[in-house]
Specification:
This protein has 686 residues and is of the alpha/beta class. The protein folds into 3 domains: 27-304, Aconitase, domain 3 (2-Layer Sandwich); 317-460, Aconitase, domain 3 (2-Layer Sandwich), CATH 3.30.499; 503-685, Aconitase, domain 4 (Alpha-Beta Barrel), CATH 3.20.19. It has 24 helices and 27 strands. The strands form 6 sheets. The chain has a 7-stranded mixed sheet, with helices on both faces. Helix 20 (573-580) links the parallel strand 22 and strand 23 (585-588). Helix 5 packs parallel to helix 24 (676-685). One of its GO terms (cellular component) is mitochondrial matrix.
Length: 686
Amino acid sequence: MLRPLEHGLICQRSFASAAEVKIPQTLTEKIIQKYAVGLPAGKIVRSRDYVSIQPAHCMSHDNSWPVALKFFGLGATKIKDNRQVVMTLDHDVQNKSEKNLEKYSKIEHFAAAQGVDFYPAGRGIGHQVMVEEGYAFPYKLAVASDSHSNMYGGIGCLGTPIVRTDAAAIWATGQTWWQIPPVARVELRGQLRPGVYGKDIIVALCGYFKNDDVLNHAIEFTGPGVRTLSVDERLTIANMTTEWGALSGLFPVDSVLIDWYKQRIAQLPQPHPRINPTTVAEAESLNMAADQNARYAKSLVIDLSTLEPHASGPNSVKISTPIRELSAQNIAINKAYLVSCTNSRLSDIEEAAKVIKGKKVAEGVEFYIAPASSKVREAAEATGAWQTLVDAGAKVLPAGCGPCIGLGTGLLEDGEVGISATNRNFKGRMGSRDALAYLASPAVVAASAVTGKISDPAEVLDTPLLEHLDLKYSEVELPEPAAEAPVVEATETPEVAEGFPSVITGELVFCDEDNVNTDGIYPGKYTYQDDVPKEKMAEVCMENYDAEFRTKVHAGDIIVSGYNFGTGSSREQAATAMLAKGIQLVIAGSFGNIFSRNSINNALLTLELPDLVSRLRENYRDAPKEATRRTGWFATWDVPKSLVVIRDGKTGPVIMTQPVGELGRNLQEIIVRGGLEGWVQHTIGA
């Protein structure tokens, strides 16, 4: 387990003295500093702070129409900044039903009416389009209502996912909110051996470090090994930081990336509005990087030279196995896939073509290929790599998500085994729940398609297998915060918005369990009933977790739970049921990201205090098990001071104090307005 730093310890900063005292920042914090709005003068943003952000661009795909309905529901009629918004059609592009075509038509007409940049079905997967067309660009902040927005980090653009309500808010007001995550540093050293790819790096990371080490963190990749990775490999790794549990995966802007852009400019047929000599020169001159003494929550070092080809699965990205071991098991496959935004770029297609050239897809195996975009296919056709795959027997699908998301042709059927270069292999995602899905690099996928079983490309190319080496890594012991830049006493404290309490206090009720999912918080049988009254929501809150919760918990209490609280589905009722119960604050070791966003969007406050969870677990270590336990401990959150004090009893002795991230005035106003939708309605009304 990576050892986390104490977080939130430099919270009471002097806004007046910020220019005089250099407060070190990570690259993630620096980019957010650029795109945060409404900050007090001199405010330096840090991890754990809540801020309002105005991203450079916001992308939505097939979900653009549901977002538009939310947008209209807010009372909005005109997108505030149509240059900020991008719409693509990519998920269900094989679906020619009247209903789907009607939805696509509505999205296209809405985009045209609003003057929004629109990319039709067949142009490519939205994330690839964002990179190709320069919306995602070095040192920018770009978001999308899709979980793989992390991919933009491969080109030094901070990309992170948002939910539909956030997207509608950005359309209407240009902004939404974000809590800056703790930042983890992953230092890459050495160089990959031939036959090992960027996909192997992220597959290994997901499998070897799977105990929520980077859950809800921002990741920054650093070290000399970064320079040895192609831009395509960086995009692959950043894309799958989502599967690792992170909210972003950011690579530095270095000479490799700048040269990549210069080559792209030379290939463009005409001047491009976003990718041109001026914009690239500006990015090169910015030369932004993390400060030398920037504070990271966690740090990990990987020796790339010790890595060998790996696969994830079956049916989990948390299971990572060397290909040599899987090959020895003779795992027969039925389907192979070279599709998705993860590994269907030109270099991926060319690597697969090198393996399969002059051979045929094995009898009984279906090998599906789809480019990440129409431009990728054009480039692959020009090099001959595309035709090599077709000649070998690959079946062509249109540029789009398709089988990666479980849509269209070629899905896994009962009892089948598939190997794919996509990003997810959750049970049932690519077809039947009774199928087995593995993830691997394009070269491994192509080799497996030829042999009919999971295979190392060396077996097909008749070259020696790589020597087996144990993966070398180290978990870095980070210095204690006291050894870093001194805490600056605040000469000003953040304002408290009108109507927002400056102090929040209540008795702690301990629900001691990790991974409490949204079905445990709000039962699924009520989720799609639109007329459940508030009283009923309060009654069934946490029903599937503990039937006694209903009688033990009272309005005004503060709930404390374990790690990854609110994991699972995206149902907003998990947050609104807590509010119906009268819960004013939920504290946990960590939260599922969707629950965190739904909480703020519906005016439920949350705090991550892992030290408090540890204290409570130690306190009740020898006590009889209670799913819901009243503790007699009281928490007081002093919002202006960004400080939480835990006492034994309402006015008893102090058990612990914990500085926390600042709850900025902008976010307070969202809470006062009853959530993001209420804030948007007030803003556009004003």
